[in-house]
Amino acid sequence: MDARVQFTLYTHIGGPNGWKVAFVLEELGLTYESIYLDFTKLEQKSPEHTKLNPNGRIPTLIDHKNNDFVIWESNAILLYLLEKYGKEDKLGVSDGNDKYNLLQWLFFQASGQGPYFGQVFWFKRYHPEHLPGVIERYQKETQRVYSVLESVLSKQEWLVGGKPTIADIAFITWNRAAFNVSFKDLPGVDVEKDYPSAYKWHKTLEERPAVAKVLAVQASMQKQ
Predict the structure, then answer these.
(1) Which of 59, 74, 178, 84 is nearest to 124 (CA)?
(2) Phi then psi dihedrals of residue 201, to 5 deg
(3) Which among 66, 73, 129, 217 is least buried, having the fewest CB atoms inside 10 angstroms?
(4) CA 18, CA 210: separation in Å to the nearest integer?
(5) What is the sign of the dihedral through the CA atoms of 47, 218, 167 and 105?
(6) Is residue 39 very low, low, confident or very high in pLDDT (cuts 50, 70, 90)?
(7) pTM over 0.85
(8) How far apart are CA 141 and CA 66, in angstroms?
């Protein structure tokens, strides 16, 4: 590892959860090296990785300037980075109630958006048996999650604190998965028209320089 690099991020080229950690590392101006695990070789389940992350998934982050501290679970990583290295309250909030609202949205993303959106992805792309009823269920849950986001973002620009925070950034990658898979070819659904505020919020987040930089890296790697 380059001694000038503070973090090692174990991630995956396609997996959404690792990329949102990269967004926050870039937003905070922190140096890191990404190691892209090969899921086809089950590298995420290897002893070398599971000794760091017993769950055998990504992302896993090592902070070399904090005694090689290891942390896993993407939203836990975002909170760690914010609380330890956030600058002038960037991507965070200072009000006590807002801090709980930030946690609320991170929990909603982890328990609602990620799992449901991910299940659509799995059953449409990888499950050996085509199960229309299962796909329909998770597509409806995806629509429900977007309805929740739309109901809030139609009244305010950001999820909490009147500013972009890690709560907003946590949603970016699975939003992209929804646009490309969950909602694709779904009759009667037009994300831009049906959820205009949530769609605008997402596109504004994608245009942030740090986010755009990371997305360009991902796009370049996926072309290789």
Answers:
(1) 178
(2) -55, -45
(3) 129
(4) 15
(5) negative
(6) very high
(7) yes
(8) 40
CB 72 within 8 A of CB 61: yes
What rounded mean pLDDT belongs to the chain?
A: 91
Place of tokens 């305010």: 156
For residue 120, what are its two tokens? 């659509």
Report percent pLDDT > 70 for the chain.
98
Considering only CA atoms, which of 150, 68, 149 is closest in space to residue 108?
A: 149
Structure tokens at 143: 């629509």
The β-bridge partners of 32 are 7
Q: Which long-range contacts (CB under 8 A, 24 or more apart) does 215-218 make?
A: 215/19, 217/22, 218/13, 218/19
Cα distances (angstroms) measured from residue 4 to each of 64, 65, 159, 214: 10, 10, 35, 20
Task: Name the 3-class secondary structure at 171.
Answer: coil
In whole angstroms, give the CA distance from residue 139 to residue 143: 6
- Best CA proximity match to 198, nearest among 134, 105, 122, 69: 105
Confidence of residue 1 (pLDDT cuts 50, 70, 90): low
Please name which of 28, 21, 121 lies closest in space to residue 74, comparing C-alpha atoms.
Answer: 21
Q: How far apart are CA 14 and CA 85, in angstroms?
A: 27
- Which DSSP string do the residues of 173-220 spell out, in sequence order? HHHHHIIIIISTT-TT--HHHHSHHHHHHHHHHHTSHHHHHHHHHHHH
Residue 10's H or E segment, with its range, is: strand 7-11
